[in-house]
Predict the 3D structure of the following.
Amino acid sequence: MTFENILLETKNHITTITVNRPSKLNALNTATIKELHIAIKTANDDIDTKVILLTGSGEKAFVAGADISEFASYSVKEGKKLSSQGHETLFNYLANLSTPVIAVINGFALGGGLELAMAAHFRIASDNAKMGLPEVSLGVIPGYGGTQRLPQLVGKGRAMEMIMTGGMIDANQALNYGLVNYVTTYEDLMPLAEKLAEKIMKNSTVAIASAIRAINANYKDGVNGFATEIEEFGNSFGTSDFKEGTAAFLEKRKADFPGK
Ligand code: COA
């Protein structure tokens, strides 16, 4: 599959998906959202991929938001469709993916760009990164999960302030808020992402997928996260990875997980 707005590369069990519209600061138009869905699904279905890194092309932007030029003339109905399709195709899809996804924020992550990063399982950033949800400055609100995921990550008061002011925070403030897990130089960003990915891929992919479901259960309406944890924990005992992981520990050797 060839993409117009996405770069896809798999190396050492890590698939890097790069949003590649640098002349528009990697803004997410509908075509890019569709391509991202396909790229993420391809990586998730690929048995060779153990971790996905999501980043933006160039030194300036991760993703500078949804493509404003595309929705500027939309009606109420079209606005609702844009948001609901985005949730389904990309943002919720990404958040619930069974393969771990790290957002590697290499510059501006604004609006839909920050929402994309927040839908990933966790985030790291370069020290030139700037993050914000400036939608109210355009007369609209975050529509790709920002009003829900930002308060979950940074707390209600900080999210209210960020969304109401539409202002940007720098990488260190994002670190302080818990919005990103690490901040490093631009040059060290990808090496850090790869180091984290390598640490993750030493573990059972089946157990990691199970942990993602259990953690996400806490954020789903009408779902009891503790009940999900009990179910997922119990199911672990039926996997080959569990047999290998426990046997390896008892035999004082490194586990070689079959991934099932
Ligand atoms: N949608 C569409 N195009 C965008 C975009 C977006 N969200 N963000 C940037 N671009 C385009 C600009 O229109 C410009 O295109 P052009 O060269 O054809 O005019 C190009 O990307 C470069 O952006 P520019 O604004 O010239 O760069 P800058 O360094 O002066 O400013 C930003 C950088 C990020 C501060 C500024 O681009 C910006 O505010 N972008 C919009 C952010 C936003 O509101 N996002 C939320 C959308 S819901």
